[in-house]
């Protein structure tokens, strides 16, 4: 062990001596010095850190190893240093420390294992080198200890594992790491095989452990296992070497390793020579021309080295042939061939594979310290030819007699077909003219060459033997052709699947060309043998790949990896810039409820892409994605799960087109509420763009669909309560209302599909459109009413009419106590009179006017606009005197208006609170009205619910007590009687009292009296009999037909009753019973004519 | 970073190559170049191709310099030999023989196949100890002034490229192929182990 390091230790002491000088100068103990250095190392840059650490290593390993244990942890801590060089140093330190103190293996092997998996290949390489050394150290140490602790066992297990790991690195991607792994394998094979007498062991490795020093009775380390491991390592190495795509450096390394093996373990010589032969005949087709030269040069070098070994004797023929092929002269070969002399007689150690014979003898023989070669039982000839050897030999033997000139010629002709167009580099480099064609030796050589090929291809009689060491598992055709190489061969070999499985050597980048006239060979490059896919193929494969991921939903969900799938899909789709987007979106929409995760992932991924490309990024893809999702949701039957809202609210950004979809959603009557709720949430939760969203909602407030509109309005009303939105809403409403001043409705009011070229006139509908929003805000903000007034004055008549129609609801909502409304009444802009009047009407429609309102109206009427119509709404709030003043003017208005006036006066409009004074008022009216106003009284009688029989009775009573008697008294009586016949008794009473009042003095009343009596006969007979005779005569003059019934009535009286009838009356009754009739009729007719149209009208209506 | 060797077969080449590499070494730290001979003697161009000046490896540059000044100062000034010796003697006292150097290198570059063989033979005859790999590259360069200049630049460029690789061993093959194509010279390349 020490001899191993002899030289390097010497070098180190030189370095160390400097530090020792420092030591003395500062006069520190080594320990203090180490602490100081370690402290420095923790703080300084990599370069100086390495220097300092090397000093520490020097101090604690070489100067004062007792400190090693103390500072071990501190040094090892640097294995996580970010500098690769420092980590490499730590590996070197581990090696030195473990060699110095084997016990440390137990603590450090795990660290080495970690470093073996380092991310830097350089660290890994260093770790492999160190492990190559430490494997032997560890084995030796464990073998020495007869009893192994648990820790030691664990340590050995780890060493074994690491060994396997490094062997596995033969398949790693990195060329350099593979090179190191090959060297490790070499060292491992040597360690795990027995050193024999003819081993050509370097002096330095004299003391190294090898299989023959492993005791068979070791408690933990099994001889057999190690032996098997060694064999399998050799197999791996040989297998590695025949890989057709091996890199030239790996091949070179392996060739060197084989040479070392052959010399240090001659038992493997047969395999080695076999491998060389195979390689020579099958140079990897991937090698470039110069690489072929390099490899051949190496092969030559190593063959020579093997040849020089005494044990090469039995292979001399093969080696010489190879060397000749490689261009070495016969002389040179002879010079390097060891003299056969005693070697021939020297015993050949039993082949390693023949384990049983080997088992005891060498161990026993070497037990003593005798370095002298023990004389083993002599076996002049190898007792068993190695199996692989025999396979080729058998095949060669089989072939040899077959190689007749004819057969060979046929073979050549057949092979011509497979020859490449141009001579391959490897062939050109290898080719030497056949000097001895046709000789026996040459035929034998040819047979052997072919046998090698056939054995590698696993054909031929030799193949029947099973234990072949070297096999090239490539198709026969490809194999055969690889001898001559060429493009065709390359392809066929590379297309075999096993190429992927095996370590892939470095692939140089320049383009391969078919070997040209120059015969120059280009190195193998992956790029040359793989055809780039066409765009269509690529797209198709991409598509199918994504689809597979897409449709593996269930399977992935079961494995709990859904989130990975979602992430993967969204990333893929984004990266492919939307090729797959539509498919995925469609897939999502098929069942968006369960795939909403994917939807969001996609959205956010797209948005992220957009952000990452700021400021030039385009939102198109994101927009498309969001739009499709929202639109897809919209097209689906109604869903109550709020996915739409969720999608909108959680989307990172709402684009214009997305907003359009939301708008369409709002316009869909079945989803208007959901849509608007979403919109509302947007407005509230996304303040930065809230006005944009609000605008949509406002726009919808004039929508043609009532449901949409009313929903929008109710949402806006709620928004209106928010200060930050209030101004915007108000402005919008007013702007919209302002449209009314245009002579024609602006195009804004029409949906896009309507033809806006033609200037259509305002319609009720368009006017309403402009006002919906305004009117719904009005009750919330009364101040707005003034704006209406100013617009109103400017608008055309059609609009005015529409406005008057639509304002009822909001004005009523404001109430007559609204200060702004009162102010409007007070100011009443010019041109807005009708508006104000309308407002007044609306306000007082159901409730009597408030004193304030009456005051304003009165004020307006008297001071500014003397239009009596203003008074109508508040008429029942006015003083009696004012009413009387106004009445004449009112009555001149058209009948409809008059009717309304009276309705108001009579309180019929406010049915719930009838005005108590109405009968009195009515009485008054009846008294005061000049004949034309009978129209009015007539109206009153229409209101039967107001003018009940009781009321009429009172009215009649009052009228009768009036002096002089009102003209319309009798008409009222007759009308009342017509309406309520049960008033008959009461009327008789009235009539009687009228007689007392000498009714005949009022010709008009008298006429009615008679008429009434006429209508109420026979009840009226008793009243008639009360009349003085003159008046009775007058009655009969008017109605002669009454006399006879009355006379009969009197005759039916009892004598006692008749006694009350005065004689004069009787005279009137009985006298001029016949003659006066015709004359009597005429005055009545005349009288009727005199009464004029008014009277006629009254009576006609009564008669009906 | 890594140690590198160029062995020279003729002075003019060595001169150019070494000069380029020295310049580069000054600008880039961590690049360690050494020059060696492999033959049994040191040969410097003489007045005719068949009359070289031959010294053994014990002779110092100083002695060679003085010897040549004495022989024909003008000739050896003109062909740059004196300049080279002058520079060399400031770097080390005498030429070194590769086979005698026990230091470990990462890369050895030779300029003639014969030298490459010598290096290989030497390296493989040494006893393996650490298994640290050393890559040996040969670029054949004709023994004339023009070729030597081109070769110097080529080698220098190769070294720079190798220096710039992240993982020399993994990229070497590819790099050499590129250089081979570019320079239209065959490169020999192998790996040995210390």
| CATH fold name of the largest domain in chain B | Rossmann fold
Point out poorly predicted stretches of chain B: 7-13
Largest interface: A-B, 46 and 34 residues
Report how far apart the termini of chain A are.
Answer: 147 Å
Radius of gyration of chain B: 17 Å
Radius of gyration of chain A from CA coordinates? 63 Å
CATH topology term of the domain at 26-133 in chain A: Leucine-rich Repeat Variant
Q: Widest sheet of chain B: strand order?
A: 2-1-5-6-7
Derived structural class of chain B:
alpha/beta
Level-1 CATH class name of the domain at 26-133 in chain A: Mainly Alpha
> Quick check: average pLDDT of chain B?
78
Low-confidence stretches of chain A: 1-17, 20-25, 342-388, 465-521, 752-757, 908-917, 929-933, 1073-1104
- Mean pLDDT across the residues of chain A is 73
> Which CATH architecture of the largest domain in chain B would you pick?
3-Layer(aba) Sandwich
Number of strand segments of chain A: 0
Number of helices of chain B: 6
Shape call of chain B: globular
Instruction: Quickly count the helices of chain A.
Output: 57
InterPro entries (chain A): ARM-like, ARM-type_fold, Symplekin/Pta1, Symplekin/Pta1_N, Symplekin_C
Domain Symplekin/Pta1 N-terminal (chain A): 121-343
GO cellular component, one term (chain A): mRNA cleavage and polyadenylation specificity factor complex
Region (Disordered) (chain A): 334-362
Protein model, in words:
- Chain A: Residues 348-360 have a biased composition (Basic and acidic residues).
- Chain A: It holds the Pfam family Symplekin_C.
- Chain A: Residues 121-343 form the Symplekin/Pta1 N-terminal domain.
- The complex is a heterodimer of chains A (1104) and B (194).
- By secondary structure, chain A is mostly helical.
- In chain A, helix 12 runs antiparallel to helix 13 (289-308) and helix 28 (581-590) packs parallel to helix 30.
- The radius of gyration of chain A is 63 Å and the shape is rod-shaped.
- The relative contact order of chain A is 0.02.
- Chain B is of the alpha/beta class and 194 residues long.
- In chain B, 49% of the residues lie in helices and 19% in strands.
- In chain B, strands 2-1-5-6-7 form a 5-stranded mixed β-sheet, with helices on both faces. Chain B has a two-stranded antiparallel ribbon with strand order 3-4.
- Chain B is globular and about 50 Å long.
- The A-B interface holds A 4, 7, 121-122, 125, 129, 132-133, 174-176, 179-180, 183-184, 187, 202-205, 247-249, 252-253, 256, 260, 288-291, 293-294, 297-298, 301-302, 305, 505-510, 522-523 and B 102, 117, 120-121, 124, 127-133, 135, 167-174, 176-178, 180-181, 186-193.
């Amino acid at each position: 062990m020490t001899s191993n390091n002899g030289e390097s230790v010497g070098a180190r002491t030189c370095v160390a001596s400097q530090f020792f000088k420092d030591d003395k100068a500062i006069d520190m103990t080594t320990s203090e010095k180490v602490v100081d250095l370690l402290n420095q190392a923790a703080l300084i840059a990599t370069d100086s850190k390495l220097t300092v650490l090397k000093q520490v290593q020097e101090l604690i390993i070489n100067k004062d190893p007792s400190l090693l244990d103390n500072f071990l942890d501190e040094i090892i801590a640097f294995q996580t240093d970010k500098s690769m060089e420092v980590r490499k140093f730590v590996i070197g330190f581990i090696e030195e420390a473990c060699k110095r103190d084997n016990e440390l293996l137990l603590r450090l092997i795990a660290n080495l294992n970690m470093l073996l998996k380092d991310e830097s290949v350089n660290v890994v390489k260093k770790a492999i080198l160190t492990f190559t050394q430490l494997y032997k150290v560890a084995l030796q140490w464990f073998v020495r200890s007869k009893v192994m602790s648990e820790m030691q066992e664990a340590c050995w297990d780890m060493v074994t594992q690491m060994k396997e790991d490094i062997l596995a690195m033969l398949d790693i991607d990195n060329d350099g790491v593979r090179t190191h792994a090959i060297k490790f394998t070499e060292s491992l094979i040597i360690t795990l095989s027995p050193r024999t007498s003819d081993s050509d062991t370097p002096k330095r490795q004299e003391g190294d452990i090898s299989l023959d020093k492993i005791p068979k009775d070791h408690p933990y380390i099994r001889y057999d296992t190690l032996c098997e491991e060694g064999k399998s390592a050799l197999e791996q190495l040989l297998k590695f070497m025949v890989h057709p795509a091996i890199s030239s450096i790996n091949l070179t390394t392996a060739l060197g390793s084989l040479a070392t093996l052959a010399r240090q373990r001659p038992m493997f010589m047969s395999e080695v020579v076999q491998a060389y032969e195979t390689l020579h005949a099958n140079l990897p087709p991937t090698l470039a021309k110069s690489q072929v030269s390099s490899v051949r040069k190496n092969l030559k070098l190593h063959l020579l080295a093997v040849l020089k070994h005494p044990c090469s004797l039995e292979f001399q023929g093969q080696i010489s042939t190879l060397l000749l092929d490689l261009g070495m002269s016969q002389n040179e070969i002879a010079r390097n061939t060891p003299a056969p002399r005693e070697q021939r007689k020297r015993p050949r150690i039993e082949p390693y594979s023949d384990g049983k014979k080997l088992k005891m003898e060498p161990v026993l023989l070497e037990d003593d310290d005798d370095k002298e070669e023990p004389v083993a039982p002599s076996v002049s000839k190898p007792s068993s030819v190695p199996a692989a050897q025999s396979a080729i030999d058998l095949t060669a033997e089989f072939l040899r007699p077959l190689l007749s000139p004819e057969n060979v010629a046929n073979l050549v002709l057949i092979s011509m077909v497979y020859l490449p167009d141009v001579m391959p580099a490897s062939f050109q480099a290898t080719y030497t003219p056949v000097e001895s064609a046709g000789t026996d030796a040459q035929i034998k050589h040819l047979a052997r060459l072919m046998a090698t090929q056939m054995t590698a291809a696993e054909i031929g009689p030799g193949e029947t033997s099973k234990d072949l060491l070297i096999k090239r598992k490539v198709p026969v055709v490809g194999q055969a052709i690889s001898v001559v190489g060429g493009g065709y061969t390359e392809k066929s070999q590379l297309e075999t699947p096993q190429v992927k499985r095996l370590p892939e050597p470095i692939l140089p980048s320049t383009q391969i060309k078919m070997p040209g006239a120059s015969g120059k060979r280009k190195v193998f490059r992956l790029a040359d043998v793989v055809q780039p896919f066409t765009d269509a193929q690529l797209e198709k494969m991409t598509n199918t790949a994504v689809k597979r991921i897409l449709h593996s939903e269930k399977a992935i969900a079961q494995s709990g990896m859904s989130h990975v799938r979602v992430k993967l899909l969204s990333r893929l789709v984004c990266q492919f810039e939307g090729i797959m987007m539509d498919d995925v979106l469609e897939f999502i929409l098929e069942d968006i409820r369960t795939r909403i995760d994917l939807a969001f992932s996609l959205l956010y991924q797209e948005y992220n892409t957009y952000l990452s490309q700021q400021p030039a990024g385009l939102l198109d893809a994101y927009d498309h994605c969001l739009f499709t999702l929202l639109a897809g949701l919209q097209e689906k039957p109604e869903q109550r799960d709020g996915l739409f809202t969720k999608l909108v609210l959680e989307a990172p950004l709402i684009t214009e087109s997305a907003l359009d979809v939301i708008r369409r959603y709002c316009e869909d009557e079945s989803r208007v509420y959901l849509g608007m709720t979403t919109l509302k949430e947007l407005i509230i939760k996304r303040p930065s763009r809230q006005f944009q969203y609000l605008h949509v909602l406002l726009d919808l407030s004039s929508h043609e669909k009532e449901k949409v509109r009313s929903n929008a309005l109710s949402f806006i009303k709620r928004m209106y309560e928010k200060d930050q939105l209030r101004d915007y809403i108000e402005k919008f409403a007013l702007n919209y209302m302002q449209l009314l001043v245009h002579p024609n409705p602006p195009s804004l009011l029409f949906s896009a599909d309507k033809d806006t070229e033609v200037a259509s006139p305002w319609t009720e509908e368009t006017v309403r459109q402009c006002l919906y929003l305004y009117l719904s805000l009005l009750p919330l903000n009364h101040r707005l009413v003034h704006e209406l007034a100013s617009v109103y004055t400017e608008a055309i008549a059609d609009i005015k009419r529409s406005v008057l129609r639509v304002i009822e609801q909001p004005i009523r909502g404001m109430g007559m106590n609204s200060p702004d409304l009162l102010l409007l009444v007070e100011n009443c802009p010019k041109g807005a009179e009708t508006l104000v009047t309308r407002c007044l009407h609306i306000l007082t429609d159901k409730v009597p006017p408030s004193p304030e309102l009456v005051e304003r109206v009165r004020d307006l009427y008297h001071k500014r606009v003397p239009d009596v119509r203003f008074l109508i709404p508040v008429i029942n709030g006015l003083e009696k005197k004012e009413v009387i003043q106004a009445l004449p003017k009112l009555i001149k208005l058209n009948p409809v208006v008059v009717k309304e006036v009276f309705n108001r006066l009579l309180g019929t409009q406010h049915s719930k609170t009838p005005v108590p004074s109405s009968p009195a008022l009515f009485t008054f009216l009846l008294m005061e009205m000049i004949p034309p106003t009978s129209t009015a009284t007539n109206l009153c009688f229409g209101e039967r619910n107001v003018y009940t029989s009781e009321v009429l009775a009172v009215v009649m009573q009052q009228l009768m007590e009036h002096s002089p008697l009102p003209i319309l008294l009798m008409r009222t009586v007759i009308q009342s009687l017509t309406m309520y016949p049960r008033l008959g008794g009461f009327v008789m009473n009235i009539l009687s009292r009228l007689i007392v009042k000498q009714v005949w003095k009022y010709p008009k009343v008298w006429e009615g009296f008679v008429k009434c009596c006429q209508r109420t006969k026979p009840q009226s007979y008793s009243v008639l009999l009360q009349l003085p005779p003159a008046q009775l005569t007058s009655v009969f003059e008017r109605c002669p037909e009454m006399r006879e019934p009355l006379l009969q009535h009197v005759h039916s009286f009892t004598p006692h009753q008749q006694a009350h009838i005065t004689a004069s009356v009787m005279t009137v009754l009985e006298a001029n019973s016949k003659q006066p009739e015709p004359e009597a009729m005429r005055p009545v007719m005349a009288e009727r004519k005199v009464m004029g149209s008014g009277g006629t009208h009254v009576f006609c209506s009564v008669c009906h | 970073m890594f140690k590198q060797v160029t062995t020279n077969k003729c002075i003019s080449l060595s001169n150019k190559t070494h000069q380029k590499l020295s310049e580069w070494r000054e600008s880039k730290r961590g690049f360690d170049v050494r020059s060696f001979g492999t033959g049994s003697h040191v040969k410097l161009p003489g007045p005719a191709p068949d009359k070289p000046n031959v010294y053994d490896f014990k002779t110092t540059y100083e002695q060679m310099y003085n010897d040549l000044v004495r022989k024909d100062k003008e000739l050896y000034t003109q062909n740059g030999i004196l300049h080279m010796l002058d520079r060399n003697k400031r770097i080390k006292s005498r030429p070194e023989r590769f086979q005698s150097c026990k230091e470990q290198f990462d890369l050895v570059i030779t300029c003639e196949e014969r030298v490459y063989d010598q290096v290989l033979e030497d390296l493989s005859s040494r006893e393996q100890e650490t298994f640290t790999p050393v890559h040996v590259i040969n670029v054949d360069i004709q023994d004339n002034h023009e070729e030597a200049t081109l070769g110097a630049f080529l080698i220098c460029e190769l070294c720079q490229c190798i220096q710039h690789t992240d993982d020399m061993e993994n990229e070497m093959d590819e790099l050499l192929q590129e250089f081979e194509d570019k320079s239209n010279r065959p490169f020999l390349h192998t790996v040995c182990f210390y």
